[in-house]
């Protein structure tokens, strides 16, 4: 229904004071329809925006994101490579220690062998003195200590009558034959040989006797062979 042109629109007065003049308390203004609609729409928009922002991100089913899985794989690869490097370095160090220890023992053995080799002529003199009966008293005691010390260090004498001749350790300076031996045999030792461990410091100087049938046996053997040849003819 339309109003007459002479009628005026009623005046609506809204008290927007925040403090009640009668009680002195703070008022809570009730919004009108438009304001309530705007406030509701703004509240919904804010709830939607902040609600989505505050909502926790969904986690993968396996408990780790693809980025975390790739990072874990890379770290495990680095650990495997470092472990392999450590094992290789450990093995190289163990081989180095063995090589150094082997070289050290070789140097010590060579030094001992060199000292023992320089004393071989002294041992020869002591042996000749003993053979002539001149090695006695305090001189013999010193000689026994020297020989004992060299033997305990690894020096070993070889070369004795009756040994089988071995050209690698014997130096033959005389050669005879006899039917009393079965093969090349050392019958006289002119100078002892010495070895230090597996190293031969000096070969033994010896006289060697080879097997050979005597004259009578050789004649019988020749006669037997000639008789056999006659019978065959």
TrEMBL record:
Entry GO terms, CC: cytoplasm
Keywords: Chaperone, Cytoplasm, Stress response
Example of a GO MF term: adenyl-nucleotide exchange factor activity
Highest rank taxon of the organism: Bacteria
Subcellular location: Cytoplasm
Main subcellular location: cytoplasm
Keyword RNA-binding: no
Example GO biological process: protein folding
The UniProt record lists the keyword Cytoplasm: yes
UniProt biased composition (Acidic residues): 46-61
Skewed-composition ranges (Basic and acidic residues): 1-28
Region (Disordered): 1-79, 211-233
Family: Belongs to the GrpE family.
Role noted for this protein: Participates actively in the response to hyperosmotic and heat shock by preventing the aggregation of stress-denatured proteins, in association with DnaK and GrpE. It is the nucleotide exchange factor for DnaK and may function as a thermosensor. Unfolded proteins bind initially to DnaJ; upon interaction with the DnaJ-bound protein, DnaK hydrolyzes its bound ATP, resulting in the formation of a stable complex. GrpE releases ADP from DnaK; ATP binding to DnaK triggers the release of the substrate protein, thus completing the reaction cycle.
Subunit structure: Homodimer.
Database matches in PANTHER family: GRPE PROTEIN, GRPE PROTEIN HOMOLOG, MITOCHONDRIAL
Protein name, as recorded: Protein GrpE
Provenance organism: Saccharopolyspora terrae
